[in-house]
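Review this:
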Amino acid sequence: MEDMIYLKVQNTTDKGSIPHQLHLLELNKIIDNQSKFYPFLKEIKDKIVSLLTFRIPYYVGPLNRTSEFAWIERSDQKIYPWNFEEVVDKEKSEEKFIKKMINKCTYLVKEHALPLQSIIYQEYILLNELNTIRVNNKKLSIEAKLDALEQLFKKNNTVTITKFKNWLQIYFGENKAYSVTGLSDEKKFNGSMSSWNQFTNIGFDLTNKDHLKMAEDIILWATIFSEKETLKKKIERTYPQLTKQQVKSILSLTFKGWGRLSYQLLDGIYFTLSNGDKTTILERMRNTNFNFMQIINDKENGIATKLEELMADNISELDILSQIQELPGSPAIKKGIQQAVLLVEEIKKIMKKEPKKIFIEFAREDREKKGTRSRYKRLEEVYKVLLKENDRMYREDVYQELKNLKQNEEKLNNQKIFLYFLQNGRCLYSGKEIDLNTSDLEIDHIIPRSYTKDNSLDNLALVLKKENQRKKDDLLLSEKIIQKNKKWWNYLKRKQLMTEKKYLNLTREKITLNAQKGFINRQLVETRQISKHVKNLLTNLYPNKNSNFKGTIQL
């Protein structure tokens, strides 16, 4: 009692390490035993159990539909755990949630971005690669590029450089060596037509526009709906002509993630070229060797000018604050833009006239361009050094596990596996050796998600479950954990298994206001692209229709 541990309250996070199934087993036993004395318990057993097992799905959001943050689709009936399925339309609620969360197109901010595995988006990614590679220091001809697309990429989900070189020998009928340069990955193409291949194997004729639309709709729904049963109902209701076997095959596929560009931008808008021909951006990428950036910056054919007009039209219908909120980018970027606009307005008010010129300056990083190394190569180089040094923290069995992945490097894209090797097979909070195959491991956010939405490797730690429970949702690690591991963390940092940022996150002793503001992953691509939107936004704000103002807005 003096230690305040007698008859502790049951509802604590201390029980978080106990499997949920044990709590459920205990509850069922209690109800079965007590129903002998209280028969009504047996009648309402399902309702009582639902109080423990029920969770409001994340995509449903606030249950009060009058809330400004709610998007739920439901009837007027009161919601209980046991009638949730009848009262709430989960399918419509999830669709509305995902549409709220889908990225907007980087250029046309009113349009939703395509799924990452959309057939059209995959073709755009692949053409971007094919249009920049060089075979024996020369670009592929348009004909050879399109034949490669049909004969190689629409037959194989992954195309390695070796496979591509073999195809070149057969295609050109010359048994000679080919060099392929211009790819970010020296072993394979990052682009793929996997979705085309998957739906073709299921029986879709994707040269038929109706079949292509059907496939694109299904990919969209599969990316939106996390529950297979919901997806199945949606497919069967919309496309009853599909066979049961086709639906079953579709449900076995997995589609995740969203791109940055919309269908409207890639293949929905026709641009008129200087020779009078009309083309979409995707058609232009097919019929030339220009990549995406070259096409949208093509001033000679007027594409760049037309696109800027479209970007301006996309936001001109909204008031200034709404326009800013529609821009792509993080809340921090939008806040900065809003402050800049308010400042311009204040200067205009003081000067009693509109500005003659507005100059917009955006900071850029000057970084040395380097070829990317695979995760496997990066780890292998470090572990070879560790092997030579024979440090006491080095685990030879972990190095052997890494070598076993040489023929299956893509497994290192799994966060858990990659963190395991970055931490040399040890729990980051205790330093204890861990087994990758055990279920007793969790990935913890070093700086909790309640403070920052940083899901990068610099803020993730692979730890034993009990260590994560001990940390709970505290902002900082305890001084005891820091002092115990600081030397080892510094060792990982010196061996390039940990970044400086991660080390600072782990060893923070206090959080300043500036540090809290700095908990943002800045996305340079968005920051640079947003400059064009800001230019259009300010141009719309100062149209000067009723004055003789001849001002300019320059980047």
